[in-house]
Amino acid sequence: MTDVVIMGGGPAGLTLACSLAQAGIRHVVLERGHHPRPRVGESLLPSALRVFDEIGFLPMLDEAGFPRSPGVAYHPLDDDEPVVVDYDEFGGDPGVQGAPRGYSYHADRARLDMLLMKYAESEGARIVQGAAVREVEFDGDGAATGVRADVGTESITIPARIVVDATGHQTLLGRQLGLRTRDPELDQIGLHAWFEGVYRGGRPLSERAQIFFLPIHRGWAWLSPINEHITSVGLVTNRSSFQAWDAGIDRYFRACVGSGSALARALEGARPLKDLRAEPSMNYGLEQICGDGWLAVGDAARFVDPVFSSGVGVAVASARRATEVIQAALAGGRTDAAALRPYQDQTFEIAAVWRDFVRLYYRVMPGFTVLLRSPRYRTSLLRILQGDIDPELDGGLVGEMASLVGGL
Predict the structure, then answer these.
(1) Neighbours of 265 (CB within 10 A)
(2) Mean pLDDT of 252-273
(3) What is the DSSP letter of 377?
């Protein structure tokens, strides 16, 4: 018997493991793959670095040699000058909780996750790779009691007081319980790959993550440096538009990115290093993210279109919230749904604001840059964009911005 079993060894699961190890709570992480695992590149936001600082991982991240990112640039449709956001701004106002420095990193996710795993192990986390969880086990009253997993040629059962789903888009527990739903209003799909020969612009643009608005329904794209030569390029667009296309994924990608003049110029001499990969579920969630003896963190709980590369930051922040609730539940001797519900309530409040913000983003894009330029909204938008949401404060702000364009 262990106190906590964590299914999944990505940023959310490993951040939770670090926190539990540092608190002296018995746990085990079961990761079905082996690090390093292939993952899309990620530009880390200040909110992610703040969590990494809290668990003590930041010095190892600093030593990893990832390219520094001074911020993000948004490219309007009219080919006008991009709107530049500096990470210095994230820490320059008391209302913006930023990183402990004015820059972040472009991180190769496969390497980032591997480093975080090594750090978690150094902190005392117990991690088993190559452990494929088959199902979560429940007792007659519907409470999670552990997991059944295949490790090598053996099938084992690990009893636990709390089971945490950190399996990302797999949403293992959500699927097992039939709790996963797709958001019909934000039915997006993502396509991405690594490229060589991408023109990133002159400095300081070349050092930044770049967002390009496209003249297609709910379409935008990103460029994110992986290293000096390799760039992660991704396209997000409406699922129905993609499904209506019958000429293949590569031609669809080229047609969409070619519709934006600035992006087309950037990719004119580029060549893919990997096949395009599809992320078929850009917006989904579980009807509940905790129950008797279980909870879900990170992308296993919900995933709402990360329009500002906020994925890792949101995931690790949810793991930190889960840590507090798990510690309190175990200390109080209660692991039922009521004891874990504060985590769900807070997460749902934050997710509701983010969902409304993303709906607003798609309603006004590409005019979103007008809001971003506004002194009235810029500081608050920087906080919201990195997923660092105060539901009470930011819910009203999103509503105010929505009223300017006729509501959500």
Answers:
(1) 12
(2) 90
(3) T
Alpha-carbon span 12 to 35, nearest angstrom: 15
Distance CA(176)–CA(120), nearest Å, equals 28
- Euclidean distance between CA atoms 310 and 306, whole angstroms: 5
Is residue 102 domain-resident? Answer: no
E-strand stretches of 342-396: none
d(CA 231, CA 209): 10
Give per-residue pLDDT as tens, 44-94: 888 899 899 999 999 999 999 999 999 899 988 876 788 888 888 765 443
Q: DSSP per residue over 238-277, as a string? A: EHHHHHT--S-HHHHHHHHHTTSHHHHHHTTT-EESS--E
**Is 92 a member of any domain?**
no
Number of domains within the chain: 1
Say if residues 147 and 133 touch (Cβ distance below 8 Å).
yes
Give me the count of residues in the chain. 408
* 44 vs 311: CA distance, rounded Å: 9
Please give the pLDDT value at position 303: 85
Q: Give every CB contact of residue 372 below 8 A, 6+ residues apart in sequence.
A: 74, 83, 85, 378, 381
pTM for the model stands at 0.91
249 occurs within a structural domain: no
Strands 277-279 and 188-196: antiparallel
Sequence-distant (6+) residues with CB within 8 A of 361 are 307, 368
Q: Tell me, yes or no, whether 93 lies in a domain.
A: no
**pLDDT for res 96:** 42
Runs of H (alpha helix) within 123-178: 172-176
Biggest CA-to-CA distance, the chain: 63
d(CA 172, CA 141): 20
Domain range holding 368?
A: 2-39+109-179+284-404
Distances (CA, A) of 14 to 17, 113, 240, 287: 5, 8, 35, 24
- Written as six digits, the tokens of 81 are 């000058």
**Residues 301, 318: Cα–Cα separation, whole Å:** 9
CATH number, domain with residue 126: 3.50.50.60
How far is residue 322's CA from residue 40's CA, in Å, rounded to a whole number? 25
